[in-house]
């Protein structure tokens, strides 16, 4: 780490699936985390999820050998972010909510502290309107689970500054991740390719052409997809997938991005994937 680079002190806003997963990744690499959410009940569940993911990562050998986990502080007070060297926003995939959170934390940290929106599809420059220093804002798209997936899509908005990119690159290096930089656009690269493909896989099942299991097995064994698209949907969270597809459809008008009825029905039924215990597959109990 360069001599003028401060020790990383990360604030994560949002204790859901991605917020807790990013926190676990950072803690496992020795980076202290302050995690902010709205209620103590949410934070209690978040702490349990972080602990579980740290155990899984250690069992899988996914963390640096000999590195003791750093300290996790959980709080309902945004003011705890004042000393952060970077803030990762990982709240729900709605631009208005993200913009409000980014504006609040920008006021607390002041200029020069990277504001990182973890989004699967909202263009960074849309959110830049909400912050006083757009050069501090950058996008990331961590894949789930972050402790196993080594690369992170880094989205450079039109107003993202070089200093911000350098600092985010330093943070990701400290987390053992490879940053792959892309330009700003709806869905960027990964979601723009993956999410319509999952939508099409669900349409195949909806049409009765093949079972869920057959679709995933063919994609794994014939086309090299590591998990299968519908198992991947369960891992992403089907509600999150539908939100991302809606963002893509609204901004591109690509009909392939309009969520199919099977996905919508699963969301209405509460079958959201691993986190609810049932999605395209039955997991017995909630596992996220």
UniProtKB/TrEMBL annotation:
Pathway stated in the Swiss-Prot or TrEMBL entry: Lipid metabolism; butanoate metabolism
UniProt cross-references to Gene3D superfamilies, sorted A to Z: N-(1-d-carboxylethyl)-l-norvaline Dehydrogenase, domain 2 (1.10.1040.10), NAD(P)-binding Rossmann-like Domain (3.40.50.720)
Transmembrane segments: none
Pfam families per record: 3HCDH (PF00725), 3HCDH_N (PF02737)
Coiled-coil stretches: none
Key words of the record: Oxidoreductase
Database matches in InterPro entries: 3-OHacyl-CoA_DH, 3-OHacyl-CoA_DH_NAD-bd, 3HC_DH_C, 6-PGluconate_DH-like_C_sf, 6PGD_dom2, NAD(P)-bd_dom_sf
Family (UniProt): Belongs to the 3-hydroxyacyl-CoA dehydrogenase family.
Protein's recorded name: 3-hydroxybutyryl-CoA dehydrogenase
Organism in which the protein naturally occurs: Streptomyces hyderabadensis
């Amino acid at each position: 780490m360069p001599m003028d680079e401060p020790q990383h002190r990360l604030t994560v806003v949002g204790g859901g699936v991605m917020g807790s997963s990013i926190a676990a990744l950072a803690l496992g690499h020795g980076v202290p985390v302050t995690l902010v959410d709205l209620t103590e009940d949410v934070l209690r569940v978040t702490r349990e999820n972080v602990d579980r993911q740290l155990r899984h990562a250690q069992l899988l050998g996914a963390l640096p050998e000999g590195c003791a986990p750093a300290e996790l502080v959980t709080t309902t007070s945004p003011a705890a972010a004042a000393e952060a060297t970077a803030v990762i926003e990982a709240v729900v995939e709605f631009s208005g909510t993200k913009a409000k959170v980014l504006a609040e934390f920008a006021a607390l940290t002041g200029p020069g502290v990277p504001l990182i929106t973890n989004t699967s599809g909202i263009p960074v420059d849309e959110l830049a309107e909400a912050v006083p220093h757009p050069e501090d804002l950058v996008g990331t798209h961590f894949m789930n689970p972050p402790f196993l997936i080594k690369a992170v899509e880094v989205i450079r908005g039109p107003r993202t500054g070089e200093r911000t990119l350098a600092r985010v690159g330093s943070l990701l290096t400290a987390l053992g991740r490879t940053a792959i930089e892309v330009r700003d656009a709806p869905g960027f690269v990964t979601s723009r390719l993956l999410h319509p493909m999952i939508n099409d896989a669900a349409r195949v099942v909806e049409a009765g052409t093949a079972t869920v299991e057959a679709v995933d097995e063919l994609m794994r064994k014939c086309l090299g997809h590591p998990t299968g698209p519908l198992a991947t949907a369960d891992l992403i969270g089907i509600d999150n997938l539908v939100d991302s597809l809606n963002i893509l459809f609204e901004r591109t008008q690509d009909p392939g991005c309009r969520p199919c009825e099977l996905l919508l029905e699963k969301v209405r039924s509460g079958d959201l994937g691993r986190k609810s215990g049932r999605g395209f597959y039955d997991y017995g109990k909630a596992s996220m």
